[in-house]
Amino acid sequence: MATGPQTDRADARPYSLALRSLQSLVLSIVVALFIVTFLFQAFQIPSGSMEQTLMVGDYLLVDKAVYAEDAATLLPAREVERGDIVVFHYPVQPETYFVKRVVAVPGDRVRMVEKRLFINGRAETADYAIHRDRGHDAYRDNFPELRFAPGNVDARWWLDLHRLTSASGELVVPAGSYFVLGDNRDDSQDSRYWGFVPRANIVGRPLLIYWSRGDAASAVTSARGDTLSSLAYAMTHLYTRWDRMLRTVR
Length: 250
Fold this sequence. Notes:
This is Signal peptidase I. It is a single-pass type II membrane protein. Its main location: membrane. It comes from Candidatus Korobacter versatilis. Its EC number is 3.4.21.89. It is a single chain. By secondary structure, the chain is an alpha+beta fold. The protein has 5 helices and 12 strands. A hairpin with a 2-residue loop joins strand 6 (about 115-120) and strand 7 (about 120-125). The radius of gyration is 24 Å and the shape is elongated. It starts with a helix and ends with a strand. The model is unreliable at about 30-40 and about 215-225 (pLDDT under 50).
């Protein structure tokens, strides 16, 4: 029996629908890859070094375009500034992400006296830094300390520290580098212990906290873990800190 034009059109409909669905799926994947590659990235806070600004269990949306030097992003970029919170590749172990606050930029002079931070001879006035340890740590609290180094100080940084500290006892930040500290100053592995953050290591700036889980003692992944898997687990096993949801990061 011969088939007519109507039968041919009917047979073509499922094929056309499947093709359109495939095209939509491919487009969605391309858009998602573009966003993740050039614009935004999810990041989980694994430690308390940035408390109270950022808490263990906060899930961040990181703006990767804000400092982008690649014109392919088509978005305006700006320089890294003092006070910026940045996500970056840990210089000692580049596959690991850290998040800290930039306190000094190239050319700045850094010094800490009895836990108080001085930049270019001026005392820090911002209120985000906290000190919880009433004890005294000579290296941590009076930086740079050149007479001795604790065991957790990177060896190469210890040598650079002597070379870059001026006669006045101030550490001078070289070109293309940044000095970062955790807001939780007494409990933060930061530039005091391993050195400067190169400009090329900076990934972006946290934009907002899109979700925050409670029970900080039960961290399910580290900064190197699978953020999506961690999020799925946390949403079904831990409670949500609603007061931190969609909070902008400053």
